[in-house]
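Human: Not sure, check this?
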Amino acid sequence: MNEMETQLSRLFNAAVGEPPNQVTAWAARRQAIKRRIIACVSATAALAIAGSIGLAVSASAIVPHKVTSSHPALARPKFYFTEDVLSTKKNIVENVVRSSATGAITGRVSCPGPHPVTVGVAASADQTFFIDCQVSKNGAWTGTRVYRFGVTSSGRISGFGLLPGGNLTGLRGANLAVTADGSLLGIDVAKAKKGPISEVLLINTKTGRHTIWHADNLPGGITFLPYDLSFAHGGRELAVFGYDSCAAGVGSHCRKDPGQEMRAVSPAGKGGNLSSGHRIFVQSQAEGTSHGWVQDAFMSPDGSTVLVGLRAYPANGVFQLSAATGRRLRTLFRAGKHGPGIRSMAVDATGRFVLYNGFSAQITPVPNKHLFVNGWIDHKKLRPLNPAHGYIELFAW
């Protein structure tokens, strides 16, 4: 390991901590982040050291609109969900619902079972939340269960229960997405005991019916690994952001892969292979340079634009792309050379409020809660969201 890789390793361990032998929520997400770091290590060492900060992009920052008596300004979601990491050494996490206005905890929820770990979360327009929970035995992942719950007007937990079709025995689940009306849920999955995430499972939340989009093999010998999911056009289109690599055994016959890309398929509920869809953008279009990567990407509900969180100096921040051409349209937040960069983000059902979370530029061998900052950006200004300095692994609103 050279000096540059050593610095990245120190940063990574400082921010995340070493996991125990059993599967954990942050270990699942860490593997995806690690793959991106390895892929870009030689070009992004200085940027990776820069770190990131937590924000959220407001409706007015993304979509210009006039405020009139008949078209009032959109209000940000009243509540938000966070999985707070209370201790990396002891693997202590807590799932809470908070008031967006004050940060006060209004409700708590946890995955049922002896080793409760939440792996993904999503929310519909009426703030019905969906979480996927690992099922493990003797430290080995044996399945995933998807639960659903609502929040009352005061933020209390209501109607927590297993989603119809949500008992995914033998499958390892990851990121979630749900349509605005809550009728269709998407989850990245793979066989529990082997292989990387390679399929997108869709669940009809009323009937429990399953359909599958296979994502493993694309034309040219490319293996596609899904990561972020989003729905557009009233849930009729599914957008899948992920990263590519040459499939095992293909060798020199593999064409050059685009690194990362977003693909879209429709109708979303049909299932099939992602290779039948069309490409929305590739990594080079988003970053405008070869020195970085896209951390997260989500299509807007109307399917016209894509919101990307980018770690790539000098284009370090949050940007809006055209879904038709992949061309960059707007800069929503520019972090600059030394950060704050991006750790992760999550979009609400309107596509106009975007949670954005990260850690600061300081490198330390001991994780410190003050390295983490959460908030939202209103007209490109940081507006803190409590917990302003919490270590948040998952979030949604």
